[in-house]
Design brief:
128 residues, six-stranded mixed sheet, 6 strands, globular
């Protein structure tokens, strides 16, 4: 399973989500066809740009609760003071990707930032 975790400012457009997603995938030599899902925090459920992007890619959006985000916080590669104060995690995109990809997931690298969107890619422990 390969999951793209998404963090964003309120009200971003779907093309902004897609730009960050494409940049993160390119950084790891992947295409959107390799993705199993997009993931974000439950409190982002109303961000239509995330659901629009997932729909366009025919992917599910996995909404991760705060407990699951907190549980993987020590495994992030990025530690943003802004993210910590706003979301309670050192990186929303990284924690969402890790939590959604499974117990033994690992990040392929630090999050990518494009405008008001962050994206991180996590892979489950069963993939190399």
């Amino acid at each position: 399973m390969i999951v793209a975790g998404i963090g964003c400012k309120k009200g971003v457009a779907a093309h902004d989500i897609r730009a960050a997603l494409d940049a993160a995938l390119a950084a790891h030599g992947l295409s959107s066809a390799s993705l199993s899902a997009l993931a974000t925090a439950k409190f982002k459920h109303a961000e239509t740009a995330i659901t629009e992007t997932a729909h366009a890619l025919r992917l599910p959006v996995l909404l991760v609760d705060n407990a699951a985000l907190t549980a993987v916080s020590l495994r992030t590669l990025t530690h943003s003071h802004h993210s910590q104060s706003v979301t309670g995690t050192p990186s929303l995109s990284e924690t969402a990707a890790l939590a959604a990809a499974g117990q033994h997931a690992r990040l392929l690298g630090p999050r990518v930032v494009v405008g008001g969107v962050t994206c991180a890619i996590a892979i489950d422990g069963g993939r190399s």
